[in-house]
Amino acid sequence: MFTIVNSDVTKAANIQTLGRKMYMYSKGAAGWTDFGVLESVTPARANTRLTLKGNRTGKTETFKDIADDDTLTFTAQTSATGDAAVRAYYIGSAAIVSPGTSAAFAGTNAYTLGQVVVAGGRYYQVTAAGTSAASAPTWPTTAGQTVTSGGVTFTDVGTTAPESILAYQDTTGVTEGGMIFVRESAEAGGLNIVRAYPHVQIQGNGEPDIQSFNGLEFLITVLSASGFTPPASFGDFGTNKPSGVVYQVPDSRLDALLTALGTAIKTFVDAS
To answer: Which one in 13, 101, 237, 259 has a CA-CA gap of 20 to 30 Å to 270?
Structure first.
């Protein structure tokens, strides 16, 4: 009997156009690093095989063939060359920051376009000149958000001052941590693919041109993570301790899965 178990394989919902996102967490980091706009993420699997051959009947035959050493790698290219966190993973060392001259907020002060103030460890650049109010505003805490004080508009530019100099020790080092890849669908109700690896090594692997822009290439090698337990609420693997997990997840549960995975991998990496 010839029975097809997936007769709906050709339906439109099974055909997706998926984006690319990549996140990395290393031990002790303040959070996950987003690798920005990715040109490509290419997996490759290599293995060393053990083969037993013999000649019992006048012809050499293969009696057993197994994969002895299986290695999964990813090559990823990003255009986020100006991001300090991404470049730190590329080089293998964090930046030594030499900040410029950013001052604290001053009330009733005439601010010019481009000036920078610092508050709570974050930097805010003047994007509309004018005179500030007497007291400081409630500062945003997300890059790109704006706040108005009197006639001045400040834009949050993150935790690194725009005029800072970043110095890296060019060691071409290797960094270990956890990695999450997300292939996200733009279609309403679409399916997304999430690949999670709690123990990887990442290193810089080249500086390609990406659509006429500069780029950075990374080589990611998946390592054993025998002590990691994936969140059971999204798939109970029992006593198995996989070194990587692939999920097919609908839009409605994507955020919950990423939150649970991020927490589990962070806990594993910090304890290693």
So the answer is: 237
Q: Where are the alpha helices (DSSP H) in 159-250?
A: none
How many Cβ atoms sit within 10 Å of the Cβ of residue 238?
7
Note the pLDDT of residue 11.
85
Alpha helices in the chain, H assignment, sequence order: 84-91, 251-271
The answer to whether 245 touches 260, Cβ cutoff 8 Å, is no
- Vertex 187 angle, CA 181 and 192, to 5°: 25
- The whole-angstrom separation of Cα 228 and Cα 52 is 34
At 93 the pLDDT is 82
Q: Tell me the C-alpha distance between 22 and 16, whole Å.
A: 19
Q: From CA 188, how far away is CA 13, in angstroms rounded?
A: 10
CB-count burial class (<10 Å; 0-12, 13-18, 19+) for 152: buried
Distance CA 152, CA 156 (A): 13
Residue 140: count other Cβ atoms within 10 Å of its Cβ. 15
The three-state secondary structure class of 91 is: helix
Neighbours of 79 (CB within 10 A): 20
Query: How many Å is the Cα radius of gyration of the chain?
Result: 25
pLDDT of residue 170: 78
User: Which residues in the chain show pLDDT less than 50?
Assistant: none
Residues 198/176, Cβ–Cβ less than 8 Å: no
| Sequence-ordered list of residues with C-beta below 8 angstroms from that of 95, at least 6 positions apart, any chain | 84, 87, 88, 166, 167, 168
Type of residue found at 37: V
CA distance 29 to 84: 14
CA distance 171 to 90: 10
